[in-house]
Specification:
By secondary structure, the chain is mainly α. 73% of the residues lie in helices and 0% in strands.
Length: 217
């Protein structure tokens, strides 16, 4: 989880390969459905954006910010309805949503979305928000597993992004001020540094959502 009020250690070089090869193999029918949805969305993202990683991130981070907010809201209502304390779980989901929102704010400063991409964001948020709400109400385990797979793909995409930066195909521009403040990065931080900390965030969300799915019977 990310707490913007606490200092975050700047990633060392050895962290570049940390947790990037994790994949939970689908075993149950629920897992297979979650994996199929993820791969289907990945196919369309690759088709639409190809190697425009900054613009891909703008659109996908908008979608990524939905599950935590939906899950946190529904867990909040469940806590009230059942009169049980589920505060830590609710807090973690809402922090996840806010963290993904900050990813979006960062990439808006980097990529400058077009009107067409803003339209995709609007439609994607509406459609996916409605879909995920229904999925979470009916199949909570599948919903968390799907987010785990989403984050696996996010980690992979950011690794590709890093490769493009390191190979010189994408300029390693200075990090935007919003990213420097949020992750407490050095003033001389670059785009590469931002991609690293965001990838680490996604790896954490991946592991937690897979863990949530495992805990649900």
């Amino acid at each position: 989880m990310i707490n913007s009020e606490l200092p975050i250690n700047f990633p060392l070089e050895e962290d570049l390969i940390k947790n990037t090869d994790v994949h939970i193999k689908p075993e149950t029918f629920s897992d297979m459905v979650a994996y199929f949805i993820t791969k289907s969305l990945r196919f369309f993202a690759d088709l639409l954006f190809k190697k425009k990683y900054g613009h891909r991130a703008v659109v996908l981070e908008t979608v990524a910010a939905v599950p935590g907010m939906v899950g946190g809201m529904l867990a909040h209502f469940r806590s009230l309805r059942k009169m049980i304390d589920d505060g830590d779980f609710i807090k973690e989901l809402l922090e996840e949503a806010d963290n993904e929102r900050m990813h979006l704010m960062t990439f808006i400063a980097i990529a400058k979305p077009s009107k067409f991409e803003r339209f995709i964001i609007l439609m994607g948020q509406f459609i996916f928000g409605a879909f995920y709400t229904v999925l979470y109400i009916l199949f909570r385990k599948t919903a968390h597993r799907m987010v785990g797979y989403f984050e696996e793909e996010a980690v992979f995409s950011y690794s590709e992004y890093l490769y493009e930066i390191d190979s010189g195909k994408i300029p390693n521009t200075p990090a935007p001020e919003i990213a420097i403040r949020y992750w407490n990065l050095p003033n001389e931080a670059t785009l590469r540094d931002v991609v690293i900390v965001i990838r680490n965030d996604e790896a954490g969300h991946r592991d937690r959502n897979h863990a949530f799915a495992d805990e649900i019977s």
